Amino acid sequence: MVCNSNALWSASEAEAHINQLAQPLDPQRDRELLPLTQSLGRVLADTVTSPLDFPHWDNSAMDGYAVRFADVQQCSADRPITLAVVTEIPAGKIPQVSIKAGQAARIFTGAMVPLGADTIVMQEDTEREGDRVILRQAPQPQAFVRHRGSFQRSGEPLLPAGIQLQAADLAILAAAQCTQVPVYRWLRVAIFATGDELVPPDRPLQPGQIVDSNSYALAALVQQGGALAQVFGIVPDSRADLRRAIISAQESADVILSSGGVSVGDYDYIDELLQDLGATLHIRSVAVKPGKPLTVATLPGVGDDRPRLYFGLPGNPVSSLVTFWRFVQPALQRLSGRRDAGCRWLTVPTAEDLHSGGGRETYVWGRVTWPQGGNGEEIQFNPAPGYQNSANLVNLAQTNALAQVPLGVKRIGAGDRVKVLLV
Length: 423
Ligand SMILES: Nc1nc2c(c(=O)[nH]1)N[C@H]1C(S)=C(S)[C@@H](COP(=O)(O)OP(=O)(O)OC[C@H]3O[C@@H](n4cnc5c(N)ncnc54)[C@H](O)[C@@H]3O)O[C@H]1N2
Ligand code: MOO
Description:
CATH class of the largest domain: Alpha Beta
Catalytic activity: adenylyl-molybdopterin + molybdate = Mo-molybdopterin + AMP + H(+)
CATH architecture of the largest domain: 3-Layer(aba) Sandwich
Cofactor: Mg(2+)
Number of helices: 7
Family: Belongs to the MoeA family.
Keywords: Magnesium, Metal-binding, Molybdenum, Molybdenum cofactor biosynthesis, Transferase
Radius of gyration: 31 Å
CATH superfamily of the largest domain: MoaB/Mog-like domain
Bound molecules: ligand LQZAQKY5, molybdate ion
Strand order of the largest sheet: 1-19-21-22-18-14-17
Largest sheet: 7 strands, mixed
EC number: 2.10.1.1
Structural class: alpha/beta
Distance between the termini: 33 Å
């Protein structure tokens, strides 16, 4: 079935449409419980509520003395106050006595504040003489006490569903004693490269042949994005082989990515085969350079009723990556259950002039660089040096951003601000 697919879609229209097609995994059905140590980079399937107050009890933020504020509030250099040190409380120990008027407890960072005390005085602000401590300045009331529950209350949400777990999140889960983490299962992404001219990188290259580089880049991008890449390799330009590849990808993956064969050439079979296989073709070309031929389709699920999202990316290596970054990456994030799914844009000055033919929204590849020192330099976009052509993957190396030259604009001057997609 074809659905207005012959239109030339603007990038933002295509993005919005793909967004609707990319239905997230089901947090109940598509989940697993993973040991904490294996959960880095996975997407949390449930909100984790705190089983404890943080801090778990009132504790000291400093090495020093736990005192009663009422005892020391009048203290000054002229009127020092001396307190009796009646106990010592290292971290991890329960205070054995409560502090009465005129008394103090020696205390260390993280140790429980004893009953009766309400304020901590830093060691550096005291003088110790035997079993007495002398204060020559009044502390603030409740100084250096980290109060129970002041960071987080038990029963309140600690981490929301849909976040991709990072190092700090693992620290929080560990502290909350959540050792089995509910995460979404991996999103499975099948990848194949089409073209009779393609050979794998370890084969001697014959005249006319091209090394398949797209499979490697796409698999790496899928993995970097936190999904499972199923690499099918090279599929020749034959209807039967392509059909077999699509059907087997339909069986094993949630998303299918192919590169090549989506333009108008005699061997560009992808769209026609998708229709034969009962797909709905949503998009066939986008007004984007590089990356005009882009097929977006949905195929029926095999083995379950989840529709498979199909992206037929253009074969030119840069076009393939640019369309992945602009359209596939946010869709994979959304499908994976991520609450922050979407392109990350920044507006920064460009270090050099940027050019476009003006007929399509153009993406210039390069690097956003951050100032190394505080010399008044700004974050800026530096286009990759050399010839920017959709077949030239050489200067694509180390790309971390795509600068967007809007439709109809032919030049953005050096120093002008430009919208960049962080990739
Ligand atoms: N008459 C027209 N010709 C073309 C048009 C058009 O509108 N009318 N569009 C051009 C644009 S823009 C692009 S982009 C390409 C995309 O074509 P396909 O997706 O069908 O890609 P192929 O023809 O299969 O390959 C294009 C190019 O890329 C090389 N390639 C393919 N796969 C890989 C791979 N896995 N690794 C590395 N390189 C690959 C392939 O050898 C070709 O050189 O169509 C234009 N033509
Ligand atoms: O869109 Mo093609 O990707 O310009 O080379």
